[in-house]
Amino acid sequence: MIEGLQPYPEYKESGLPWLGRYPSHWNLRRTKILFHERAQKGFPNESLLAATQTKGVVRKADYENRTVTAQKDLHLLKLVEPGDYVISLRSFQGGIEYAHHRGIISPAYTILKPGKSATSGFYTHFFKAKLFIESLSLFVTGIREGQNVDYERLSRAEMPLPPLDEQAAIVRFLDHANRKIDGFIRAKRKLIALLGEQKQAIIHRAVTRGLNPNAPLKPSGIPWLGDIPQHWEIHQLRRLVRNGRRITYGIVQPGDPDSKGRFMIRGQDYSTGWVKPEMIFRVSPTVEVPYKRSRLSAGDLVMTIVGAGVGNIAVVPDWLDGANITQTTARISIDPGKAHPDYVALVLKGPIGRRNVEQFVKGAAQPGINLEHARIFIIPAPPLTEQAAIVAESSKRLSSFDTAIARTEREIALMQEYRTRLTADVVTGKLDVRPAAAKLPDLTPSTPETATDEAPEESEPGEEAE
Fold first, then answer.
1. Confidence of residue 148 (pLDDT cuts 50, 70, 90)
2. 3 belongs to a structural domain
3. pLDDT (tens digit, 9 = 90+) per residue, 280-291?
4. 3-state secondary structure 399-458
5. 40/118 same-domain check
6. CATH number of the CATH domain containing 371
7. Taking 60 as the threshold, does the pLDDT of residue 463 lie above it?
8. Residue 161 pairs with which residues in a beta bridge?
């Protein structure tokens, strides 16, 4: 579909640094000419809407993440019609959102109704293009958490305007391209899920049967665990930790970042393997010192106890010795005379760890477990020498799966990067897609134009998540 795409035959300078040259037959128009601000209120019986960075403006009732629903002053919320665009409090980060439904939304948002020259859907793609999102920094007011797009300034900014028939061709092309890209990503994510299931099966077999398939078994005494080798024992996690270093959580308030401060570990830092040091938050000593009780040592385990990744676990590497943790993360210091830290991590990464978490986890919007529950997690434990052998053999067997998963995730990332570049090149006129669009079949009604498997962003200020 993209083979043979060429630039337009003639270009002219836009005078806009972020846009550069654009097709000579396109026009530039101020935002307030292309769109009219809608500021209608007084519709308290309409559906409540949520602005998300991945799904556009959708009904709160259909939103995967539970949000706090306003109960009063609904007459003050702004009306949104299907086809409108919404500038939310996070649009400077993720672009301007397309509205799929009629309803009402935060009065802090700006609602844009497309004029006749902007009704084709072209700007649905344009407003999510990386170049446009980056250009929004020119119209942002406030600092840090108070940032917002100043529409008064944006309304005077110029945007490219292709002819209507060309807008339709661009929409047609990008809708088809997105459908193919989304299909590719869905297939790759299914492959990752399958590989993950196979990894889980290997881990479960290793930590419930060991390496000797002929070892005699005995009941574990735990219905959901079943039989284990006769010479194994069952321990609660608290029985395996070092004396004087009980399972604990970390810093309640992280404070301001400090480039020379102490590393502060969050669940996102190890959810799919340890991130690079420069990606880890550093906290100032004045904030961290009162929480020195939760500092880490190399070989400790860190486990997420609050959030979407509750139960995720990792072994602390040497380069993070002395780091601290957040209140959403627990430190588990395994006594090497009682258990092998890597073995305990292996148990908790598998189905046994998941079952331990599931029986105690609470909350839907923000799932979590408390430390008292973590302390009584069940750990099947062979002798120390056997634990080390299980870790070594499992590492060999799992390495090929980890390699395959990493390669597949990289393929997804490259495809997402390709989508980003393709969209930007098309909506700014760097590539002429009219010949390609003319050859494309119509999309079936059941095919979403820009389907995505990505989870929606958390609700925005004014639409707080629980």
1. confident
2. no
3. 999 988 888 889
4. HHHHHHHHHHHHHHHHHHHHHHHHHHHHHCCCCECHHHHHCCCCCCCCCCCCCCCCCCCC
5. yes
6. 3.90.220.20
7. no
8. 27
